[in-house]
Write a structure and sequence with these properties.
- With 729 residues, the protein is of the alpha+beta class.
- The chain has a domain at 5-33 and 473-725: 3-Layer(aba) Sandwich (Rossmann fold), CATH 3.40.50.
- Helices cover 16% and strands 34% of the residues.
- The chain has an eight-stranded mixed sheet with strand order 37-38-40-39-41-42-43-44. Strands 1, 2, 3, 4 and 5 form a five-stranded mixed sheet that branches.
- A hairpin with a 2-residue loop joins strand 11 (163-168) and strand 12 (171-176).
- Helix 2 runs antiparallel to helix 13 (707-725).
- It is globular and about 75 Å long.
Length: 729
């Protein structure tokens, strides 16, 4: 999945002489060292299953290393449970290449404890550090290291809390906590054929980060076998360190071989293995597996062209599958990791469909018949939060305004209307205890700082998880708007010393592609854009067609039109905003973005130099034939049948047209959008005799936050824009 600039633009390094900063860069330094003033705030907050406490991770304000904390629900007090230093005793944290790649897929760039697991009996905490596993006993705070080998990936407690499962050396293992013994569950795992690991496209594009699943009764595990034989191997090297061996990655490109996936049901008692059967030729993609109380395992599998998703019920004894439902769309079917999922009483399963024009949450009978639309289209369902069988509620997030996310609940049996539980404008999320006695609700508000609160079952606020984060030095001057022919959502960030009589150059902060909402009602989203505005720009951001949250037709409008419709919408939105803000000088427009946004920035100056007068392209996809299968084929089709969409979507088709200033930035170790893209773009521009700037970011990936680097980078981008667009007049 391509990343939004707000996620990664802080993650670059230049390695070149920087121009004099156009303004005081002290804010950039603070912003970088505090990770956007988010370090020091609680993350991964999770109630214990019994609801007596909330565990969370937190760093110091300027140290990107997470420690483990506990909030006592009854007393309202917080204490630090464990630090990485206590575990490692001064040693440096070390990660295997597999774990580094997994963290890159999960967008994890901090150190320390990046995740934790709580046993179902609430007594134990499982932590991973430097590829080793540690179990903390709650109450006594006793820490013991499990006697495993190094390089452990994806650890989990068994549902009975007696064992820990994990992947090591490409095989699945089980650790008995009482006996302190490790048992190998699968054999023969290799880099080519692995067991229990999600393949690259599952992690990067499907949002599925695991390759094995426990049965609710802890008697079986379903695991994935991934056969990468035949998949193209790409190598990532660090050119500044030629003595180091390049790192190989299996990278499936459009029209080429994917990893072949199989599923097996393994009986813990005797190791008996039963392979799950489905038409893998027709449905080669394993979208998700859900094994919850209420029914047998459910699978969602997808065709290569992604126009069909089938829901299958698996028989544990035989491995045979029964089709329950087939979802179809002539463009593509979106995947939702929360569905399918049995209701606890087994009377049906939850499913998310866009069949009637947008995502709606449904309950389906076992035979596939629609029983009830739980969250109808007008509410704009966003995601499932939890199912409370005891109190008969389904909790979910939704919003008719895609710039916001709100928490709702709806009654089960009989189904009622959705009840909105959050009112403050912003982005809300929630996590519930297994017994639903407490919940943790986090908000990134339209005004003010992010916060995390603990609530009881009735919704009463019991306390706030404490933050030690620093506060930003200013409040962004951002105005959210709608405009253009499609009533697009947009944002306008004005300089804090804005003078209405002046004319300001415009800087477009662009993403513009699928799967990412760029314009959000969250104050902290706009801090960096405010710094750019204060350099003498009016900064704008526009979410055109293709972005999520506005229904099936809005999102599918970009199908096979990457080079046309998204760019047209940016121009339409830009002109609509200029009509509302006369101070915007459309004769001086710059555009910058990262990933798909980098593609859009380069495309803008190449195809529409009459509108865009300077561009900065970070990690752009130059040639869609060099991006991965699941993302690219979803939107452009499968080559060679759909070669025309790839040709018109390629930046290389337009390099002869360049007549505006363009700067290209790219990490040489990027394993998502490979450095190859910018090299091909630079080579094509050079061969056409075009002038441009190229900044290779040595050894950096698609997302590598580095405070010194980030400060220098944004100085350079701002200087580039001031040089070519000028100052307010």
């Amino acid at each position: 999945m391509l990343l939004g600039p707000c996620l990664v633009v802080a993650a670059l390094a230049c390695g070149q002489t920087q121009p004099k900063a156009p303004a005081d860069s002290s804010f950039l330094r603070d912003y970088a060292q505090t990770r956007g003033f988010m370090l020091g705030r609680p993350v991964k907050a999770t109630p214990t299953p019994d609801g007596t406490a909330v565990l969370f991770l937190r760093a110091q304000p300027r140290v990107a290393k997470l420690g483990l904390y506990e909030f006592d629900v009854a007393g309202g007090t917080t204490r630090e449970l464990l630090t990485p230093e206590q575990v490692l005793k001064g040693a440096d944290e070390k990660l295997t290449p597999e774990e580094k790649a997994r963290r890159e897929r999960m967008r994890v760039s901090v150190g320390g404890f990046t995740s934790f697991h709580i046993s179902d009996d609430s007594k134990l905490i499982l932590l991973s550090l430097s590829g080793r596993l540690y179990v903390v006993t709650r109450g006594t705070n006793q820490v013991r290291e499990l006697k495993t080998g190094p390089g452990v990936i994806d650890p989990k407690f068994s549902p009975d809390s007696a064992r820990v499962s994990y992947v090591r050396d490409h095989d699945l293992y089980l650790y008995d906590l009482a006996a302190e013994q490790e048992k190998r569950l699968t054999t023969g795992g290799t880099p080519l054929v692995s067991h229990g690991l999600a393949e690259f496209v599952a992690q990067e594009e499907m949002g599925r980060f695991t390759g094995y699943w426990w049965s609710p009764d802890a008697r079986h595990i379903i695991y994935q076998e991934s056969d990468a034989r035949g998949v193209e191997v790409w190598y990532v090297a660090d050119p500044i360190r030629p003595e180091q061996t390049p790192t190989p990655f299996f990278y499936p490109r459009p029209g080429k071989d994917n990893v072949k996936v199989k599923l097996a049901i393994l009986a813990i008692a005797d190791g008996a293995t039963t392979w799950i059967q489905w038409d893998r030729d027709k449905y080669p993609y394993l979208a998700t597996v859900r094994w919850t109380k209420g029914g047998p395992p459910l699978l969602a599998v997808q065709t290569r062209d992604q126009t069909e998703v089938a829901v299958l019920e698996a028989d544990v004894a035989t491995g045979k599958t029964t089709p329950l439902l087939v979802e179809r769309d002539p463009a593509w079917v979106n995947l939702h990791q929360e569905a399918p999922r049995w209701l606890p009483d087994g009377a049906g399963y939850l499913w998310v469909s866009e069949r009637d024009g947008g995502p709606q949450l449904e309950v389906r009978a076992k035979a596939g018949r629609l029983r009830q639309v739980v969250v109808p289209l007008p509410e704009r369902y966003q995601g499932l939060v939890d199912v409370d069988a005891g109190n008969k509620f389904i909790y979910y997030t939704a919003s008719a305004d895609p710039t916001q996310t709100h928490l709702f609940r709806v009654q089960l049996h009989p189904f009622g209307e959705g009840e909105k539980l959050t009112d403050e404008p912003g982005m809300h999320s929630a996590v519930f205890a297994k017994n639903h006695s407490v919940s943790v609700r986090a908000v990134r508000p339209r005004r003010g700082s992010p916060a995390t609160f603990v609530h009881d079952a009735a919704g009463k606020r019991l306390g706030e998880l404490p933050s030690v984060a620093e506060s930003p030095p200013f409040t962004p001057r951002v105005e959210l708007q709608t405009g253009g022919k499609s009533a697009m959502h947009a944002a306008v960030v004005l300089p804090r010393n804005f003078e209405p009589r002046k004319r300001y150059p415009v800087l477009v902060d662009v993403y513009g592609g699928p799967h990412h909402v760029h314009v959000t009602s969250s104050e902290y989203r706009w801090l960096l854009d405010q710094w750019y505005a204060d350099q003498g720009f009016i900064v704008v951001a526009i979410d055109g067609r293709g972005t999520p949250g506005r229904g099936r037709d809005w999102e599918r409008a970009i199908y096979q039109k990457f080079a046309d419709l998204p760019l047209d919408d940016q121009i339409d939105g830009l002109q609509a905003l200029a009509a509302k803000y006369p101070a915007m000088d459309l004769k001086r427009v710059g555009i910058q973005g990262w990933s798909f946004g980098g593609y859009m920035a380069a495309l803008a100056v190449l195809r529409r130099p009459d509108v865009f007068h300077a561009g900065v392209a970070g990690a752009p996809v130059a040639d869609w034939l060099d991006y991965d299968t699941h993302y690219t084929e979803r939107y452009l089709g499968i080559p060679p049948k759909d070669d025309a969409a790839y040709k018109t979507g390629s930046l290389l088709s337009y390099t002869s047209r360049l007549r505006r200033p363009l700067m290209i930035l790219h990490g040489t170790a990027d394993d998502n959008v490979y450095f190859r893209h910018s090299l091909k773009l630079a080579d094509s521009l050079f061969r056409h005799g075009k002038d441009f700037e190229m900044v290779p970011l040595s050894g950096l990936t698609h997302m590598v936050p580095d405070p010194n680097v980030m400060e220098r980078l944004h100085q350079r981008i701002a200087g580039f824009m001031v040089k070519h667009l000028g100052r307010p007049e």
